[in-house]
Prior knowledge:
Elements: H1 12-22, E1 34-37, E2 44-50, E3 56-62, E4 65-66, E5 69-73, H2 78-92, E6 100-104, E7 109-112, E8 119-120, H3 121-126, H4 134-147, H5 156-165, H6 169-178, H7 198-206, H8 209-224, E9 228-230, E10 239-241, E11 246-248, E12 255-257, H9 260-280, H10 284-316, H11 327-352, H12 358-361, H13 366-385, H14 393-405
Antiparallel strand pairs: 1-2, 2-3, 3-7, 4-5, 6-7, 8-10, 9-12, 10-11
Amino acid sequence: MKKYDSYFLMNLNDAKEYALEKVTRFDWDENSMQCKEIGDGNLNYVFRVWDGKGHSAIIKQAGEALRISADMHISTDRNRIESEILLLQGKLAPGYVPEIYFYDTVMCACGMQDLSDHAIMRTSMLQHKIYPKFAEQITTFMANTLMGTTDIVLDHKEKKELQKKYINPELCEITEDLVYTEPYNNCANRNNVYPPNADFVKKELYDDAALHLEVAKLKMDFMCNAQSLIHGDLHTGSIFINDDTTMVFDPEFCFYGPMGYDIGNVVANIIFAWCNGDAEIAEPAERGKFCGWAEQVIVDVVDLTMAKMKAYYTEHVTDRMAKTPGYMDYYLGTILSDTAAVTGLELIRRTVGMANVKDLTTIADEAKRTRAERICILAAKRYIKERAALHSGADFLKVLKDAAACL
């Protein structure tokens, strides 16, 4: 039996030998090959392999248990889903995802383009780096990949085949639990609440029955609204970026769901960056520069995505009834409302849930972190409860600014 004929979890040496065997597009210099694990996510093992001749590749393997909890087991088939989705997204939005070299169904691993000349966006923004092209690029990616996989555009049978192919129940269950349920009741006793905010969280989240009703509505919509092939986890830790390009990866949570889930995740994670800059940048001019950029990104992500989706719809619509006057505006309005709601859901779950964000947890000063988290929670509640009343990027920004002003 060959070494890779049955599944096992690879170590550094295994991954190096694996790349030598599987990534055949390169004439590797075996003697100078090196390997380093670079993954910091919750689900997978990610290795960078390179040699002295300038060749490099990423090997990504799905483990059988979550790295944040050995008690949580999920299907390794997610790596197949990710590989196939990146290939599809590469066709819909060329240049916005890494190239896939191969997928191995036995080892539940794939090889892909090395993006070492890019940074993980969250890490870079924790250093308060500004990316002027980001809003333009991420909105093109979302408009093309989301609208391009809807019933508005695709043959309905083709769309249903994609929906069946990427049903992804195990990872959806993680979202249903960690985003739509546990942050509002701590029913699994897994929430990570910052102790100075414990009473605030109880009052604003655990005891707010009106909020629970709205989240229940949103949870059912997430599970039932097979609108588009969404990324499913589109935060700044799933984006490689440099001054020139934006590259999206990690679509293993992909399934057919509401488009606003992706857009709202992007908006919320820019808000986290804003909160970090507001708390951590001491010099007023530098703080104003970074936070001002983040504010403009919030506005632009909302407005540009809606504008580009409208243009895509107009050019590519195929469904006869979807051409009915007035329907496009109605349809886009539902996406915008969902975007607002998910902005709130993501803000809450990353503040008090199982998977906190470094944007908040690295704020060193207790009072500043307490305030930043409260800004997120208060803004989030308005994004959820008032989602139908938010019609523009400026409306989204005002919610954030209002929350900050009252604390």
